């Protein structure tokens, strides 16, 4: 006669079955998580960390907005019907020294940010064209200085010996220079020696090229020093030795083995160089050795607004606050990129 299963045995078997299923589910979840982590590229992991940083997202949004406005400056200014050097004589009063007519520097539907005292130029058009100039110089000088710094840093760190000694001494000399002072001294000399336009002045494109070159000449050493230090710590690693054993040339080792492993600090250096270069360009224009009037530029706007501050303070505050927001957003974005690319960053 067959005895029925004992209640305790049935309960034990059910518990064991539930436990097995729980372990299987846990193992499946762990395998799925491991697969997701293993399939996530470093760039995507950095982007996910950046997305969790609200300050960085706001900075990214503001930076993209400024860039879009600068790129679309011709279209935006045409919508208002005013160019950066198109005067509106009806918006200024010649009896009061060409002071803008109306409140807050002549702000109206016709001139969204008012007009420039003395000239009658539309301030909105001047500002957005000035942003384009500042961003163009900032990005181009950052790209050029980063490229030169990466090449010099790779060469010095990998080859070592007298090449490293020579390039390191050159870096030390460049870092010792008072950057802003030498740019102020060199820019007018170079510009005066360049081809002049039909009005007897330097071509505007050549002036921008001189600014980019002068800023880059004194900025590449920072990136080169950073890259050299990274290469010194990587050149004796196993993957580099394996490449040498397999007969890879120095070009392959530098640009296919070492460079992909140091892209994060290079990107961080570039992100932080852009706002610094924009500030330098604005300072040069403020001092009269950058972009000169009537060409629009934020630095020259701030310089011109100083003499009108008591009569029209908005002429100083509007471009000054916008320049502050632009540089601050780019700096915060650079800090966010640095934290996102650091796998040891503690994110909540």
From TrEMBL:
- Membrane topology term: Multi-pass membrane protein
Pfam family for this entry, one = BPD_transp_1
Report the InterPro entries cross-referenced here: BP-dependent_transpt_permease, MetI-like, MetI-like_sf, OppC_N
Top-level taxon = Bacteria
Describe the location of the ABC transmembrane type-1 domain by residue ranges: 131-334
Per UniProt, the keywords (alphabetical) are: Cell membrane, Membrane, Transmembrane, Transmembrane helix, Transport
Any stretches that span the bilayer, and where are they? Answer: 57-76, 135-161, 173-194, 206-227, 258-278, 315-334
Where is it located? Cell membrane
Recorded family membership: Belongs to the binding-protein-dependent transport system permease family.
Its protein name is ABC transporter permease
Question: Which species is this record about?
Answer: Streptacidiphilus cavernicola
Phylogenetic classification of the source organism: Bacteria, Bacillati, Actinomycetota, Actinomycetes, Kitasatosporales
């Amino acid at each position: 006669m067959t005895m029925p299963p004992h209640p305790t045995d049935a309960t034990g078997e059910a518990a064991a079955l539930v436990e097995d299923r729980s372990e299987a589910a846990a193992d499946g979840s762990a395998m799925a998580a491991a697969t997701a982590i293993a399939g996530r590229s470093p760039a995507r992991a950095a982007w996910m960390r950046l997305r969790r940083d609200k300050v960085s997202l706001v900075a990214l949004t503001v930076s993209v907005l400024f860039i879009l406005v600068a790129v679309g400056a011709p279209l935006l200014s045409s919508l208002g019907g005013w160019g950066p050097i198109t005067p509106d004589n009806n918006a200024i009063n010649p009896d009061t020294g060409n002071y803008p007519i109306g409140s807050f520097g002549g702000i109206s539907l016709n001139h969204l940010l008012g007009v420039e005292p003395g000239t009658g130029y539309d301030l909105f058009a001047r500002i957005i064209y000035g942003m384009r100039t500042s961003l163009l110089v900032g990005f181009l000088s950052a790209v050029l200085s980063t490229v030169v710094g990466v090449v010099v840093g790779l060469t010095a760190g990998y080859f070592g010996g007298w090449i490293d000694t020579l390039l390191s001494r050159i870096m030390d000399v460049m870092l010792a220079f008072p950057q802003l002072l030498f740019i102020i001294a060199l820019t007018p000399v170079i510009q005066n020696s360049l081809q002049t336009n039909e009005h007897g002045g330097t071509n505007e494109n050549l002036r921008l090229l001189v600014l980019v070159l002068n800023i880059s000449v004194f900025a590449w050493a920072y990136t080169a020093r950073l890259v050299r230090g990274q290469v010194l710590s990587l050149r004796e690693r196993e993957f580099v030795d394996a490449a040498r054993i397999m007969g890879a040339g120095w070009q392959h080792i530098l640009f296919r083995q070492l460079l992909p492993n140091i892209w994060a600090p290079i990107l961080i250096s570039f992100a932080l160089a852009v706002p610094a270069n924009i500030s330098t360009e604005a300072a040069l224009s403020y001092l009269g050795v950058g972009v000169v009037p009537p060409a629009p530029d934020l630095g020259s706007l701030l310089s011109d607004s100083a003499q009108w501050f008591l009569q029209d303070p908005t002429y100083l505050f509007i471009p000054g606050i916008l320049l502050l927001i632009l540089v601050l957003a780019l700096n915060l974005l650079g800090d966010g990129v640095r934290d996102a690319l650091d796998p040891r960053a503690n994110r909540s």
